[in-house]
Write a structure and sequence with these properties.
The protein is of the alpha+beta class. Helix content is 23%, strand content 21%. It is built from seven helices and ten strands. It has a nine-stranded mixed β-barrel. A hairpin with a 2-residue loop joins β5 and β6. α1 runs antiparallel to α7. The longest helix is centred in the first third of the chain and has 16 residues.
Length: 281
């Protein structure tokens, strides 16, 4: 009887270990994704309102019916390019808490578990959380619901500085190509992962994005990632990744969702570490 109780308790604690303030917010269902098939079908059939394709402002969410997160590597569609020796070494050193190489969070090293910034593009693709585009005269601000992280996209004609210091969200510049927004970015630090599966990148990574606004309710992006230090060829998305505008009768503002280090540490000590058999030092 005691053995059975101990086993059940371990299973229960292990389940709780995935429900910290950080992991629960990322990996749990979002109220923004609870849309019935009937509502989705009705929304698709409804007449699309008039809009300005250059106006990207609003709160956007990455999916129609999604109730679970989709990683960046899955959304890219195309297979992961072959890695260089350095890329393989970095990938093997990353111990994620999801995907085919998942380990218990307490024994992994996912930056999320330490409340470190997720960086870009990971913060975008953890997309059961919304983001907002805010357009200003000389820049576009991308505000992410997770940790209220901010990405600046300069639209004043400047180039990416050759000596730009590495940043969590890189240095981004954009311009309009007809109705498409083209964004080039570089100067990313190598402390972030591309997604929760642990795919790495180096400080030489560059991203090219083409954002399209085909109708008032839809936004989509195609990406090309180039990082010859890690991948033997560019990683190109197979098709545009879709996002949906949060309608006036739905969610039109971002929630305040922070990963708080003190709360995360307390949760580690109380639940996650015991569930994984990690003793206190």
């Amino acid at each position: 009887m005691r053995t059975r109780f101990t086993s059940l308790a371990f299973v229960f604690l292990t389940a709780l270990a995935l429900c910290s303030p950080a992991f629960a917010q990322i990996y749990g269902p979002s109220s923004q994704g609870r849309r019935s098939p009937q509502a989705t079908k009705a929304a698709a059939a409804a007449p699309k309102p008039a809009y300005d394709p250059h106006d990207l402002s609003g709160v956007w969410w990455g999916g129609e019916n999604a109730t679970t997160p989709t990683t960046w590597s899955i959304l890219m569609g195309n297979p992961v390019p072959e890695m260089t020796p350095l890329g393989k070494k970095m990938f093997e050193a990353n111990l994620p808490s999801e995907g085919p190489r998942a380990v218990p969070p307490a024994t992994g090293n996912d930056p999320l578990g330490f409340c470190d910034p997720l960086g870009y593009p990971r913060n975008l693709m953890q997309n059961i959380r919304s983001f907002q585009f805010i357009q200003l005269p000389n820049e576009i601000v991308q505000l992410f619901e997770w940790n209220f992280a901010v990405r600046q996209i300069w639209m004043d004609g400047r180039k990416i500085p050759a000596d730009a210091d590495p940043r969590w969200f890189g240095y981004a510049v954009g311009h309009w190509d007809g109705n498409d927004l083209l964004i080039d970015s570089a100067a990313y630090n190598d402390k972030t992962w591309l997604d929760g599966f642990g795919y790495p990148h180096s400080e030489d990574m560059t991203l090219q994005e083409r954002w399209q606004h085909p109708d008032a309710l839809t936004l989509q992006v195609s990406m090309t990632l180039t990082d010859p230090n890690i991948y033997t060829k560019p990683w190109v998305s197979a098709k545009p990744m879709p996002f949906r505008l949060q309608l006036p009768k739905g969610v039109t503002e971002l929630e305040e969702v922070y990963c708080v280090p003190s709360e995360e540490q307390e949760f580690n000590q109380r639940v996650r570490d015991p569930a994984a058999g990690v003793s206190k030092k």
